Amino acid sequence: MAKRYAVVEWLLAGDPAIRWQTLRDLVGASQRVVAREQERVAETGWGARLLSRQEPSGQWGGGIYTPKWTSTTYTMALLRELGLPARHPQALKACKLLLDRGFHKDGGFNCWSAYSYSEPCVTGMVLAVCAYFRCEDERVHSFADYLLQQQMKDGGWNCQSYRGATHGSVHTTILVLEGLLDYERFQPRDAGRVRAAQARAREFLLAHRLFRSHRTGKVINPAWTRFSFPPRWHYDILRALDHFRDAGAARDRRLSEAMEIVNKRRREDGRWVLQHRYPGKVFRNGEAGPAQPLEHAARLADPQMVGVVVRGALRLIALRAAGGWRVRSERANGASST
Predict the structure, then answer these.
(1) Which of 41, 232, 256, 307 has the most C-beta neighbours closer than 10 Å?
(2) Are the CB atoms for 64 and 100 separated by under 8 Å?
């Protein structure tokens, strides 16, 4: 118990993006206290610095989807992860830009002139951003409809379906799941259909025990068992487990092995090591460059740790000990799996 409290204190000494989620999920603070701390994401720390880098047009990094990871799409995805409050004016400006520049005639998101079709993975990301920030636009509903139509027979989604893929991709599936969940909480036109699609997709992940072949039982990709932040478009078991918790999904024995991996990775001091970073261009101290990511640079404790990952893993261990998920009504183009 002392170890847990020590980690919580460490988290509370971090950025507002970590503090508000720790207060909500681990401390049990009042909604008023949590809301005030969440508002600080826009005022100071990582969130405020990202907002300060927004260009007059509403975009970041000089592009809509590229460069990775300073473009508008990935900066907005990160601001969503950090918990920038919904309906923030700068976020809504960026949402409109994404819709204006990327809405495609097939109902999905496509900002590439070389492609004649949208991709479910990127559409899922943009849907999550627009729904989370409460962007009221008819095109947001079109994104959801497009994704529902693209769901594959096995319950997953795959950006390579246009090239003949018949099996879902965990990368694409987790992106779409996150988008549909935020959409369900926003203003869905057909909530029952949206929930049913999510249930089928979660069963797809469960059939793989989150990281194993449903045919051979072998580990599909060891990288999926390593923790990263931000995950960008990538899948890993911590991201999947956090989705199951966030959705209030029923506990399932097929989650046990993934949860045990999280448990075993915990250090003696109660923290988890940040095991992986995805290379690319990032913001640091208000500048774009290949250096240490902004979300790690502000940590005053251990630069090899990241509070958001620790918070997520600690929360899962607490839930495991309690024997169930906590149900909440609010939020805090990969290779196919085989």
Answers:
(1) 307
(2) no
Q: How far apart are CA 183 and CA 198, in angstroms?
A: 11
Kindly report the number of other CB atoms within 10 A of residue 227's CB atom: 22
CA 313 to chain centre: 14
CB proximity list for 174: less than 8 A, separation 6 or greater:
205, 235, 239, 240, 243
Which residue in this structure is represented by tokens 């250090």? Answer: 267
d(CA 118, CA 121): 9
pLDDT tens track for 204-222: 999 999 999 999 999 999 9
Cα 29 to chain centroid distance, Å, stands at 23
Task: Give the Cα separation of 83 and 57 in Å (integer).
Answer: 23
Q: What backbone phi and psi angles, to 5 degrees, belong to 259?
A: -65, -35
- The pLDDT tens digits for 157-198 are 999 998 899 999 999 999 999 999 999 999 889 999 999 999
Give, in words, the CATH class of 2-322: mainly alpha
Report whether pLDDT(286) > 50.
Answer: no
